[in-house]
Amino acid sequence: MKVGYYPGCTLKGKAKALDETTQYAVGLLGAELVEIPDWTCCGATTPLTQTKIANLIAQTRLLSKTRDAGYDALVTTCPFCFSTLRRANLTLRNDELKRKRMNTYLAEDRRLRDYETPPPDYVPYEGETKVLHLLEWLRDTIGFDRIARACKGSRNETLRVAPFYGCQLLRPAEELAMCDPEDPHILEDFLRALGLQVIGFPERIDCCGSYLSVAKPAAALRASYRILDAARKLGADTVAVTCPLCFFNLDYQQAQMLREYPEFRTIPIMYFTQLLALSLGVPLDKLGLESHRVDPRPVLERVPREVPA
Amino acid sequence: MSRYGLFICHCGRNIADTVDVPELVRRFKAEEGDLDVVQDYAYLCSDPGQNMIEEAIRKNRLDGVVIASCSPTLHEPTFRNVAQHAGLNKYKLDIANIREQCSWVHERTPEATDKAESIIRATLARVRNSKPLVPIKSPVVKRALVIGGGVAGIQAALDIANSGIEVVLVERSPSIGGHMAQLSETFPTFDCSQCILTPKMVEVSRHPNVRLYTYSEVEEVLGSVGDFKVRIKQKPRYVKADACTACGDCVKVCPVVIPSEFDMGLQSRRAIHIPFPQAVPAVYTLDTDNCLGLVLLACGKCREACDVGAIDYDMKPKYLEEHVGAIVVATGFDLYDMSHLGEYGYDRIADVIDGLYFERLLSASGPTGGLVRRPSDGKVPREVVFIQCAGSREPERHKGYCSKICCMYTAKQAMLYQHRVHGGQSYVFYIDVRAGGRDYEEFYRRALDEGVVYLRGKVSRVFEEGGKIVVRGSDTVAGGPVEVRADMVVLATPMVPSHGADALSHILKIGCTADGWFREVHPKLRPLESVTPGFFLAGAAQGPKDIPETVAQASGAAAKAISLLANSEIVKEPIVAAVDEDLCVGCRLCVQMCPYNARSWDTDRRVATVNAVLCEGCGACAAGCPSGATRQDGFTDEQINAAIEAILQRIPEIADNGEGSAAEENSVTVAK
Questions:
Q1: Mean pLDDT rounded to a whole number for chain B
Q2: What's the confidence (pLDDT) of residue A309?
Q3: Which of B104, B346, B436, B547 keeps 20 to 30 A from B645, CA to CA?
Q4: What residues of chain B lie within 8 A of the CB of A200, using their CB?
Q5: Is B282 touching A (CB cutoff 8 A)?
Q6: Measured between alpha carbons, how far is B661 from A277 in angstroms, rounded to an integer?
């Protein structure tokens, strides 16, 4: 299976650390994720709209281009890209009418857009490209046991991590088929493979506040505060997240939490890939930690570390 | 020349609203030929409607009749009886289903009327090619089999036995009693479950008309209604039932300690055991899955300890054949496995249990003697949360149906807990409280009066914190989140069909619903009979039921079985396979294909034969016969080809292709 890597827009901007640590860590695991050529927008929230054509174009174009470039599967790290691509792919596979609409549109579109070179024949896309989240790929292709062996010797087992899933990885469960949305364990399994201390964290599937941080900042702040407060009370050193939006709500907003909730104490947030890179022995200055509002370095430096051989 | 009649039913507006019935009458009347009578009527199944048909058959001396109406599963017997009464062989009457297969599934369009015409023409073609048939009669074996020894099976067996008919009662576990024997007190009267059940257990085991096989399973059922041959496997107990005095000396020396299934693992048992003190029969059973080995070198302690020499390591499974006329299926239920419910912390938190566990904690014969103690540390819980609909009414992830009994048993358990633990507090999370049934709503009110706190809403999270189990959910009455810090959580998990019910449905060849419950013929009018004749359904095997309903249904199923066995012979539809022996080439394909053992090979005459009594008329052998020797009476090749041809004739491209020759060719390809 030839696998292409799709970072998505946020990973090239605000969540650069997520992209860089992914590439770094995967390299250290002896594998490679090659970015697919000329990737375009994943479509973000367009599948949620009720239009007939526009809501699936971005995804179909991207997935058919991935197939045409010779890839069988596409791995994403951003849960938003993962969710929108996986769900759109399922719709294309199962809904004949929508598939027909997309393919008719894209066949025409390619002819109209290609002004200089004669257009190659458009092959209708029927959902062939597999859409995987990095966690799934690490579990099924690399193997958590192999990761565990690679991380052996890193001295992070005193680092207490609270896993936080966010919403996009889990739901709608029937469509994403990632894991049990009420009782997931893939992130815990992953973090345990890294040799970290994973704490039982009931708030792990709560809502971080999501886009309410724009419309109703106070409500989003309260949601994030509850999660971090619970993590702190359970003795977590850090909260592991998968999603750039969770990261924004949980990390960037802590300054505001300090103002709103006097007893609040800050807690650093880490992307799961940063923890992977860390456990594989990547030095702290290469983890993109400078972009964090709450500096994780004091916590990470407290933990005795040793680079594995 | 033969004369035929066609009667078209309006079915009130069911057919007439969609299909243009007067137009159909006009079309068929306009036709030259053998169709002597064409009539329509508002309700052919009504008394005047039936009289009209009967009169027309007599007056015109009709040789065949087509009734265009509803599905044959509803009124074929009705109209065939009319035909018989009018002196016509009743198999010369056939139903054209223009309701379920036409009017109900179409809008009122000219095409709908055309389709109804096609269906009628095909049926006419079938009737024109049909032959008069004679019903098959076979004697009835006046004995019954009851599968499952829970309260449903016990009740059905007792009722049948009391009518003087011999009953074979088969139970797969070492004792009869089923789940009811595990319960503490029952709703809505708080009477002790075992106290009311055990007399029945003893009665059934001592009844002169009951032959009880415990630790036994039905392996094979052959034959058909009135005459079943049943093969039963009696698993070896390694303890001679007639010699064992149930003294218990063997248990004391058995070195293997494992969790007791009867006590839901709350207590241990030995490899040689009796499930519970009141077990019937009161005989020990050696469970070989856990025994150190039946080799004397390995252990052999129980045999040494047994003074009466009841233990026999050389016991082999016994296979018994029983001959019965009717079978009652009473295989009961299991609870939905809690391991599917990770969100309620079952796998992480020791004190999250299900309703049946809690019954054992409440039961006077249970591991705690009826004192409520939590499994993790044996402490008395001060606060208990009950979660209703844990896995039911959740079509997305679990079971879509309402398990029906949980509202009432939760109310009962919540009260019983507060009776046993003074100062204890029960909380119940619910979606709705469904308390239909006499005295049920009052029982629920009593729970409220006794201070059980009912919180309307779903639970979102269950986790441990500081030695307590935190149950977080929503309270949709108060309109906000709610959190209860409890010592124990009881999940009201739904009833599901008993494990093995699926395999049994294949052995018995009876149908199931999508959820795996045994299906009845008609949910309202024939709720006690399986679709396959001769099988009756009792208790929770058919769907979630409480004890009163289970017992009532078991008695009903018994009455049905008795009324079947009261006949001296069974009249069977002659829709069976028959062989033209001159054409049989002796390939014996039919013998291999028959799922009912109705086909066999006559070694002397060297032809394949049919046992018409066993034949269910599935048609497999007739379709498979390469030489055309086997025919299916009522569905012969001539009839089916003629029906297909009648429809193809109405498709212009085919009909125009020269005098229907193409149609003929086509029909042959379709039929073969």
A1: 92
A2: 42
A3: B104
A4: 348, 463-464
A5: no
A6: 77
pTM: predicted TM-score of the whole model, two decimal places:
0.80
Which residues of chain A have a CB within 8 Å of the CB of B461?
202
Least confident of A134-138, B244-248, B422-426: B244-248
Same domain, A251 and A166: yes
Cβ of B342 within 8 Å of Cβ of A180? The answer is yes
Number of domains in chain A: 2
Residue type, A231: A
Q: What is the pLDDT of residues B582-639, one digit of tens each?
A: 999 999 999 999 887 889 999 999 999 998 888 888 999 999 999 999 999 999 999 9
Is B156 within 8 Å of B332 (Cβ atoms)? no
Q: Are B125 and B181 members of one domain? A: no
Residue A166's CATH number: 3.40.50.11810
Q: Are residues B191 and B151 in the same domain?
A: yes
Specify whether the CB–CB gap between B18 and B49 falls below 8 A. Answer: no
Does residue A81 fall inside a structural domain? yes
Number of domains composing chain B: 5
B670 pLDDT higher than 60: no
Q: State which amino acid sits at residue A48.
A: L
For B515-541, write each residue's pLDDT tens digit: 999 999 888 989 999 988 899 999 999
Q: Burial-class residue B622 by CB neighbours within 10 Å (0-12, 13-18, 19+).
A: buried
DSSP code for B483 = E
CB-nearest to A202 from B342, B397, B463 is: B463
Cβ–Cβ under 8 Å, residues B452 and B414: yes
B472 Cβ under 8 Å from any chain A Cβ: yes
Residue A178 — very low, low, confident or very high, per pLDDT cuts 50/70/90? confident
What residues make up the domain containing B405? 334-496
- Residue A172's closest chain B neighbor by CA? B396
User: Residue B601: beta bridge partners?
Assistant: B608
Q: Which of residues A97, A132, A167 is at a domain's end? A: A132
The interface pTM score, or ipTM, of the predicted complex is 0.73
Enclosing domain of residue A69: 3-132
Q: Cβ–Cβ of A202/B461 closer than 8 Å?
A: yes
